[in-house]
Specification:
Largest sheet: 5 strands, mixed, barrel
Number of domains: 1
Shape: globular
Number of helices: 11
CATH superfamily: Spore Coat Polysaccharide Biosynthesis Protein SpsA, Chain A
Distance between the termini: 57 Å
CATH class: Alpha Beta
Strand content: 15-25%
Oligomer: single chain
Low-confidence stretches: none
Bound molecules: uridine 5'-triphosphate
CATH topology: Spore Coat Polysaccharide Biosynthesis Protein SpsA, Chain A
């Protein structure tokens, strides 16, 4: 099997109800972290891992993601006329980062259904799936790179990316039933259970929004019946793949920020702001003063 991974699918069609009212007019994936939308941190992570083609799954109400990654000649020309070449360069570079594709998910039938929407574009290529609201900080190696390495090392079989979570929180995630430890970060899987009760969870290894698949997952998704919450669950299709050809869990290193959640998003904003040297000192001074007011 060819183990090359040059495609990424980014599901971003969800309503983002936890972020209302802002998500009435703006996608949560477009919420700003310093000066870039959340989803662009994921796009950069994919590019850094050698991905060349990015498929966004969007709803028919969301055109802001497409607008961001499309050419804007008017804005570009305006910047050139104003002799603001650096800004013109930024505007010009965004659509050139990768080959971008858009698939519309007409009904919110779940993450598995969202991934299936990419079938006709991705065809028989291997691909990464990254949820549009889960970001990592990757000064060294990104989570997607770690997953792609494991995919190559393990014969192009499904890789589920995640980390250990507090067992009290496992009911929010897909939980791994581990077969055996393969190396420092990789485990073969016996099964996977979507959002189990704490008492029923086979482990505290949680699936956290990143996977690598070969194209067999599409066939599996086509036959997956609605599961928990009446949605077509990606986890259910993976459970079936585990039985048929096996799959692995990779405990990725980078710190993850859940930007689908308000607190997680705020943590990401502060973290990525503090990384920016140009205002780090002033921002720390400000934070110290603010924190004193509320402690
Ligand atoms: P979430 O369940 O976190 O997104 O899905 P949501 O439904 O927008 O969140 P809330 O609960 O209403 O606030 C994780 C990712 O999968 C995408 C979402 O856009 C998000 O990036 N997703 C989810 C889809 O693309 N389609 C779906 O049917 C469900």
């Amino acid at each position: 099997m060819n183990n090359k991974v040059e495609w990424a699918v980014i599901p971003a069609a969800g309503r983002g109800t936890r972020f209302l009212p802002i998500t009435k007019g703006t996608s949560k994936e477009m919420l700003n972290i310093v000066d870039r939308p959340t989803i662009d941190y994921i796009v950069e992570e994919c590019l850094n891992a050698g991905i060349k083609n990015i498929v966004f799954i969007v709803s028919e109400y969301k055109d802001d993601i497409k607008k961001y990654y499309s050419e804007d000649k008017k804005f570009y020309d305006e910047m050139i006329r104003a002799k603001k070449d650096d800004f013109a360069k930024i505007i010009d570079s965004i659509p050139k980062k990768a080959n971008f594709y858009y698939c519309i998910q007409k009904e919110m039938l779940g993450l598995g259904h969202a991934v299936l929407c990419a079938k006709d574009v991705v065809k028989d290529n291997n691909f990464v799936v990254c949820c549009g609201d889960d970001i990592v900080d990757f000064d060294k190696k990104s989570a997607v790179s770690e997953l792609i390495d494991a995919f190559s090392k393990n014969g192009g079989k499904t890789i589920v990316g995640g980390q250990e979570v507090d067992l009290n929180n496992i009911s929010k995630y897909g939980a791994m039933d581990i077969k055996e430890k393969i190396d420092d970060v990789t485990y073969s899987l016996k099964g996977i259970i979507e959002k189990p009760k704490k008492e029923e969870a086979p482990s505290n290894f949680a699936s956290l929004g990143k996977w690598v698949f070969n194209s067999h997952i599409f066939e599996e998704l086509e036959h997956t019946k609605p599961g928990k919450g009446g949605e077509i669950q990606l986890t259910d299709a993976i459970a079936s793949i585990i039985e048929k050809e096996g799959a692995y869990f990779v405990n990725f290193h980078p710190t993850r920020y859940d930007c689908g959640d308000k607190l997680g998003y705020l943590e990401a904003v502060v973290h990525f702001a503090l990384k920016r040297e140009e205002f780090r000192k002033d921002f720390i001074d400000f934070l110290e003063k603010e924190v004193k007011k509320y402690k």
